[in-house]
Write a structure and sequence with these properties.
Blueprint lengths: L13 H32 L8 H32 L7 E4 H18 L3 E5 L5 E4 L1 H17 L6 E7 L4 E6 L8 H7 L11 H15 L3 E7 L3 E8 L11
Parallel strand pairs: 2-4
Antiparallel strand pairs: 1-3, 4-5, 5-7, 6-7
């Protein structure tokens, strides 16, 4: 598996390795029952298992949303375990940014719809960055989730990008948005203490770590009149392609 220079870390202490191993084992153990829960809840939500009353439909929709959220937390914990153990690696390749943004937006679509928020991606189809598509998608999905949470109902989360080198991806929640304590804590300057992580913080800490391991930078600003603005800079594609998007 290929990597990047920023991925090299000194050998972690034994306690960190034990903690990382535990997180990985726990995460993988959770995957199997979660897969079943998501599979059956999807059958119920889509009506393929038979018709439901309105109340039942609302109930299974909440079950499905919770299962999807928990699955995301599990995937984030696997990344945290790798970071903690010092063996997190990226597989960099020229990646079409628009495709990754679209998949990330799809992941957050249901959450946004329930919050009354619209996600509006506007990224040129030919914009290419040097990235690990899977990890970049997870980072952007986590950031979009945070942006949706900070956006007032009826608002729009816009995703734009510029083609300059480095490439800048901007996620804005629009007027009325806010920068809550989690955004300030996990996306601001300074190190992240894994002991402080909670359900929401894990995703934000993972997003920050993934961006930085790409050789990029993540900045957050907030203004009462302009809302929350999350800016992600990424290096332009300059590595041989190993997979087409």
């Amino acid at each position: 598996m290929g990597g990047c220079p920023r991925c090299a870390h000194p050998e972690p202490p034994q306690s960190a390795r034990i903690r990382g191993t535990f997180l990985r084992l726990m995460s993988h153990e959770l995957r199997t029952p979660l897969t079943s829960i998501r599979g059956y809840s999807e059958l119920l939500v889509t009506g393929r298992a038979g018709p439901l009353s309105d109340q039942q439909q609302r109930m299974v929709t909440m079950i499905d949303l919770s299962a999807v959220r928990l699955h995301g937390v599990v995937e984030d914990l696997i990344v945290v375990a790798s970071l903690d153990a010092g063996d997190f690696r990226l597989r960099l390749e020229p990646t079409r940014l628009a495709a990754v943004v679209a998949r990330a937006a799809d992941e957050v679509a249901t959450t946004a719809r329930d919050a009354g928020v619209t996600i509006s991606p506007d990224v040129a189809a030919d914009l290419v960055v040097a990235a690990d598509p899977r990890h970049l998608q997870r980072a952007l999905s986590n950031l979009l989730t945070a942006a949706v949470a900070s956006c007032p109902g009826g608002g729009t989360v816009a995703v734009t990008a510029t083609g300059a080198a480095p490439v800048a991806v901007v996620i804005g929640s629009g007027p009325g948005g806010r920068l809550d304590q989690l955004l300030a804590r996990f996306l601001g300057a300074g190190p992240v203490d894994p002991a402080d992580l909670d359900g929401a913080g894990v995703g934000l800490a993972v997003a920050r770590a993934v961006v930085e391991h790409h050789g990029g930078r993540l900045e957050v600003t907030s203004d009462a009149g302009a809302g929350t603005r999350i800016a992600v800079t990424l290096p332009a594609a300059d590595v041989p392609s190993r997979r087409h998007q």
